[in-house]
Design brief:
There is one protein chain. This protein has 2 domains: 160 residues, no CATH class; 163 residues, Rossmann fold (3-Layer(aba) Sandwich). Helix content is 36%, strand content 22%. The protein has 11 helices and 15 strands.
């Protein structure tokens, strides 16, 4: 499944290329609670068709009424981009379905250049990281290659947004847990690859849309070249496969690196990596294990939910409270059980 940003841009390009009039809306700023983060985009066609979102739905409805003929409105306007704000008053916040105290600022681009979007998508499809700059006063939009995924910003005149290839996840091990996790990652817009040199596991893989990578996991991780938008998750339960893959991943800028295993096995893994491969407590700080958040999961499907939640938290730069850390949560439950043991 393609990321929503790429879907919005690709749809807007196709609509423009077919002669349709299009509005591209981007969330520029938020104050208080907001249903969608800054940088979120939606494309609106002159007949009222929409792809993507900037809120929970009410603001989309207002934009459709204002800028299309779908409900007898004046239709799509042309001209320079506009900056509009929703939810300044309590009445507006209630009207547009914003959370209490929420305020949203949007940048509206009327009829963006089809050639510009085509150039942007060509760069993204080739695997490049592209920085897009829009001057709302002049309407000029430029594209430049970028080495790092800078944060979205808007200073009132210039919008800067870094767009890149979708997030990727590489799974080591092709068991049942990997299939559930792959399904969830695809649903969340990740490109998913799986590696398992054991033919009895890879031969039974049943999830469509996943790239199968042949070879030993450490070689595959090296060729995969994890970047800031990559996650590497070791799920094979075989140290000969997981450990070397993790070593390669730890020397990359991957935003998430994790390995399945109990608390004891996770500690033994850390000891092996330090004793035999020169890793240190500091270098292993990035290694998640046991992976996932604590939800009392038992089945492969439940464990996949907990792991996907932790990956998304890392992707979104959210610090999770200690109460959902698997090790801390289980220690707390064990201590509580001891207190209640007669």
């Amino acid at each position: 499944m393609e990321s929503i940003d790429l879907l919005v841009l690709r749809t807007a390009r196709d609509w423009l290329a077919s002669g349709e009039r299009v509005l591209l809306a981007t969330v520029a700023r938020t104050w208080g609670s907001s249903p969608r983060p800054v940088g979120s985009m939606m494309a609106l066609r002159s007949d009222g068709r929409v792809v993507g979102s900037v809120s929970g739905g009410c603001i989309e409805d207002d934009l459709i009424h204002r800028y299309t003929t779908a409900y007898g409105g004046p239709g799509m306007q042309t001209g320079l981009p506009e900056v509009v704000r929703y939810g300044v008053s309590a009445e507006d916040a209630h009207r547009f379905g914003l959370p209490c105290g929420g305020t949203l600022q949007l940048i509206l681009e009327f009829e963006p250049s089809a050639a510009h979007l085509a150039q942007l998508l060509a760069g993204l499809d080739s695997g490049s990281l592209i920085r897009r700059e829009l001057d709302v006063r002049s309407g000029a939009a430029t594209l430049t290659a970028s080495a790092t995924p800078d944060q979205f910003s808007f200073d009132g005149q210039r919008m800067l947004s870094t767009l890149g290839p979708g997030y990727r996840v590489l799974l080591i091990g092709a068991g049942a847990l990997a299939e559930y996790l792959a399904t969830m990652a695809l649903f969340n817009g990740f490109t998913v690859s799986v590696c398992d040199p054991r033919p009895e596991y890879m031969g039974g893989w049943s999830v469509d849309g996943v790239v199968k990578l042949a070879g030993m996991p450490d070689d595959v991780v090296r060729a995969f070249a994890p970047d800031l938008r990559s996650a590497v998750v070791a799920l094979s339960h075989d140290p000969k496969l997981d450990d070397l893959a993790l070593l390669e991943a730890l020397h990359s800028p991957a935003f998430y690196i994790g390995a399945i295993g109990s608390r004891r096995n996770s500690q033994l893994r850390r000891e092996r990596l330090m004793e035999h491969f020169g890793e240190t407590e500091a270098s292993l700080q990035r290694l998640h294990g046991p992976i996932g958040i604590y939800i009392g999961s038992k089945t492969p499907a439940e464990i996949a939910v907990s792991v996907m939640a932790e990956i998304l938290a890392a992707k979104n730069d959210v610090s999770l409270p200690g109460a959902v850390n698997v090790t801390k949560a289980k220690l707390a439950r064990e201590a509580e059980a001891c207190l209640h043991t007669p």
